[in-house]
Each structure stands twice: as C-alpha cells, then as structure tokens.
Amino acid sequence: MFKLFRAALLAFVIPGAALAADPVFSKAQRDEIVRVVREALKADPSILRDAVTSLQSDDEAREAASTRSAIKSNAKALFNSFGDPEAGNPNGDVTVVEFYDPRCPYCRKMLPDIETMLRKDHGIRLVYKDIPVLGEGSVLESKAILAAQKQGAYLKMQTALMTDPAQPSAELITAKAHELGLDALKLNADINSAAMRDRIRANLELSRAMKVTGTPTFVVGETVIPGMVDVGQLQAVIAEARKHAEK
C-alpha cells in the first residue's frame, strides 16, 4: 500500500512521472490512487511535506552512495598518485585532497586559512590537484606552479601567484621565478612540455570522474566538500574522518 501511495504522491508532485511510467498499474488503478491521495492531502496537507522530505532523503542517500563509490573507484588517483604536490605532514593520519584553480577567487581566499590549519594540525597530509578551469590564464599559472615543483618550489610559486592580483603572463611567471631564485629557462621549458600537458589533462579527467563542478573542492575520507567552506567546517570533517579511521 505504501508503494502505491508513495508512487501516487510522486505523480502528484511531478505529474505523470511515476504512475504513468509504471506498467504495474492500470489506468483505472492510477486514477483511483490519485483520487485517494488528493482526498488525503485535503484532510492532512502535512502528508505532502513528509513525502517530499522522504524523497529528498532518498536522493541524499543515493548521492552519498554515489560519492562513496566514486572515491573508492578513484582512490589511487586521488590519494596515492605518484608525484602529486603535497603540503603538511607526508605521513599524516588524514589525507585531504584539494581540487583548485590558482585563479579561483575562492581558492585564493582560502589559501591563508589552509596554511594556518596545516600549522595547527600536524596530522594532515594535503594533496593538491591543479585543475585550470577558468581559461588560459589558469592553465598558465597551474603549469607554472607544477613546473616549480620540479625545482622544489611548488608551494612558493603557488603562494607567489595566488597572492598577486596581476593578470597571468609569461613575463609575470619569469619575474616570479627570478624572485624565488629558480632557473627561469628550465621552468619555462617544463611549462611547455608534453609531460606537463599530460599531467594537467590527468587532473581534469579525475575531476570529471569525481563530478567536481567548481573550485575549491575537497575530498576527505568518504566525504566530498564542494565550493568554498569555512575552515572550521573542514576541520570538523577531518576530525570525523580521523575518528572513523581509528575504529
């Protein structure tokens, strides 16, 4: 009976969506079910609210299951991809993956909060996934930051570019390289290498597999946190992941 009632409610909320698509019910049965539901809603309108809440809960449960499945399927690429840039404790008990674009204003705003969090919590291993999604300027800066990693200066170049309001350019990258004491010629060669293009492509493919729709996006344990988040909320998710790992 509940199946019929729930299906009828769905059809009532989204006309024709459930009952019309279910071959189990004849037209007469569908008409009768919808009539009963309408009468019930007149008598107690809270039924509709409860039904919508139930549908939303089901959707959230399916979304959570889908997220867990995506993390499990891409675990190696997310957490243990050779050569990924890291910050924090390389042997930390909790790994946080951040998909970010160096030109993203929200990523830039969170940068100092992330740095402070890592200074306070020495159990965090932060893995960076550079995904330039905001145009050619983002591509250039992502490549420059990753190229700097080859000279041991990933975080220095990341900070230098993400705290500079200037528009990205080859001249800016070269100037930053000189300021940081890097080999600018090598940096530019690495920026323009096929290996760098492949690396960026792999990050973007992983972001699509994880259904990342914006930056920043964080992955912690079995949780995906999309968009800019208060660092306190991020710390709470980290604490929960740590607690889960200890069980």
The residue ranges in which pLDDT falls below 50 over 5 or more consecutive positions are 14-20
User: What's the architecture of the largest domain, going by CATH?
Assistant: 3-Layer(aba) Sandwich
Strand order of the largest sheet: 1-3-2-4-5
The number of strands is 5
Order of helices and strands: HHHHEEHEHHHHHEEH
Strand content: 5-15%
End-to-end CA span: 40 Å
CATH homologous superfamily classification of the largest domain: Glutaredoxin
Pairing-aware structural class of the strands and helices? alpha+beta
Percentage of helical residues? 55-70%
Mean pLDDT: 86
CATH class wording of the largest domain:
Alpha Beta
Task: Characterize the biggest β-sheet.
Answer: 5 strands, mixed
Domain count, please report it: 2
Radius of gyration: 25 Å
Shape: elongated
Number of helices: 11
- As for the CATH topology of the largest domain, it is Glutaredoxin
Describe this structure in words.
- With 247 residues, the chain is of the alpha+beta class.
- The chain has 2 domains: 2-60, no CATH class; 76-246, Glutaredoxin (3-Layer(aba) Sandwich).
- 61% of the residues lie in helices and 10% in strands.
- The protein has a 5-stranded mixed beta sheet, with helices on both faces.
- Helix 6 (136-149) runs antiparallel to helix 7 (154-162).
- The model is unreliable at 14-20 (pLDDT under 50).
SSE layout and pairing:
Blueprint: H1 2-13, H2 27-43, H3 46-73, H4 75-79, E1 86-88, E2 94-100, H5 105-120, E3 124-130, H6 136-149, H7 154-162, H8 170-179, H9 184-191, H10 194-209, E4 217-220, E5 223-226, H11 231-246
Parallel strand pairs: 2-3
Antiparallel strand pairs: 1-3, 2-4, 4-5
Helix pairs in contact: 1-2, 6-7, 6-9, 8-9
